[in-house]
């Protein structure tokens, strides 16, 4: 059955799709504006002066960071909200994305199970099951069964909808399959009885060929219902955007040792990527021992 459905274990991948240009300069100016009498355009960005063959200036990022971090660590974090980061995430489970979208300040666009056929899907195998042969075997059986039931319901659901077409269309389907017109009206009545037999499927195939637009509408509608049997383990792809302040809150909650393992892995990867762009972004983000009294890090 595995060969039939080509089920594959997914691998979590994360990349930064977009980030606010010049984020450190933007945050610096936002902090400075709170204490500056003049306009934002009058706030100067610190620079380093290098004397060589030419006289040039380079941005002094260390000076800006040294100004930002004490204020940020004191709880003044609203200036971080002027900058956003967008992550493209693939190979994560629906169990993870259900947790992710609970961070309501984020913006999300996720792969749709309505528009995409999931007859063959990737899945996420929890490490505790992957390490044990018996657990792995049972998990794989569940995935294969989901794929089988999804396909069965899709086939049944489409046949149920196609059999509702008018007698005129049924006669067209009969003629398309058999190359002649039906001679008995009772033949039309029982074309789709029983469902999903060889004969029934021939008429469904004929409907797809003669009325492809209508068939695709039916298929999409049936997919909406067939997806109910799919597991939370089904892999999904999602793009999400957060401002820096709320990303720090997400990171602090989801990188905690008490967070679920898969979303903890996502938080760690996202944090590492963003830190390459904004070196101070994770400083003090964990806040361990304050919001999570059972956190192991908080007891150290």
How would you sum up this structure, described in words?
- By secondary structure, this protein is an alpha+beta fold.
- Helix content is 49%, strand content 15%.
- Strand 3 and strand 4 (55-59) form a beta hairpin.
- The two termini are 49 Å apart.
Mean pLDDT: 91
What is the helix/strand order?
A: HEEHEEHEHEEHHHHHHEHHH
Structural class: alpha+beta
Instruction: Name the poorly predicted regions.
Output: none
Strand content: 5-15%
Number of domains: 2
Number of continuous helical runs: 13
List how many beta strands DSSP finds: 8
- Placed side by side, the strands forming the largest sheet appear as 2-5-8-6
Kindly provide the radius of gyration, computed on alpha-carbon positions and rounded to a whole number of angstroms: 29 Å
From the spread of the alpha carbons, the general shape counts as: elongated
Query: Main sheet?
Result: 4 strands, antiparallel
Quaternary structure type: single chain
The CATH architecture of the largest domain is 2-Layer Sandwich
List the helices and strands and how they pair.
Elements: H1 2-5, E1 8-9, E2 13-19, H2 23-35, E3 47-51, E4 55-59, H3 61-73, E5 84-93, H4 94-100, E6 107-110, E7 122-123, H5 127-130, H6 133-162, H7 167-178, H8 185-189, H9 198-210, H10 212-226, E8 235-243, H11 244-254, H12 261-277, H13 296-299
Parallel strand pairs: 1-7
Antiparallel strand pairs: 2-5, 3-4, 5-8, 6-8
């Amino acid at each position: 059955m595995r060969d039939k459905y080509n089920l594959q274990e997914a691998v979590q991948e994360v990349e930064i799709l977009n980030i606010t240009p010049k984020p450190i300069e933007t945050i610096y100016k936002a902090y400075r504006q709170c204490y500056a009498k003049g306009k934002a355009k009058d706030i100067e960005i610190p620079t380093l002066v290098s004397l060589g063959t030419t006289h040039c200036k380079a941005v002094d990022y260390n000076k800006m960071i040294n100004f930002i971090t004490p204020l940020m660590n004191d709880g003044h974090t609203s200036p971080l909200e002027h900058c956003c980061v967008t992550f493209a995430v693939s190979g994560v489970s629906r169990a993870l994305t259900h947790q992710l979208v609970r961070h309501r300040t984020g913006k999300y666009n996720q792969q749709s199970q309505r528009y995409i056929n999931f007859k063959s899907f990737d899945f996420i195998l929890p490490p505790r099951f992957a390490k044990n042969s018996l657990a792995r075997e049972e998990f794989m059986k569940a995935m294969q069964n989901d794929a089988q039931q999804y396909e069965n319901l899709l086939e049944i659901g489409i046949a149920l909808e196609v059999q509702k077409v008018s007698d005129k269309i049924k006669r067209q389907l009969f003629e398309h399959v058999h190359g002649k017109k039906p001679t008995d009206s009772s033949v039309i009545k029982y074309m789709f009885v029983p469902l999903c037999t060889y004969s029934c499927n021939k008429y469904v195939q004929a409907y797809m060929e003669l009325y492809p637009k209508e068939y695709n509408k039916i298929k999409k509608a049936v997919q909406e219902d067939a997806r109910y049997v799919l597991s939370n383990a089904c892999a999904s792809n999602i793009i999400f955007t957060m401002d820096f302040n709320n990303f720090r809150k997400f990171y602090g909650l989801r990188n905690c040792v008490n967070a679920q393992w898969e979303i903890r892995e996502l938080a760690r990867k996202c944090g590492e990527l963003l830190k390459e762009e904004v070196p101070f972004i994770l400083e003090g983000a964990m806040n361990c021992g304050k919001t999570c009294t059972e956190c192991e890090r908080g007891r150290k």
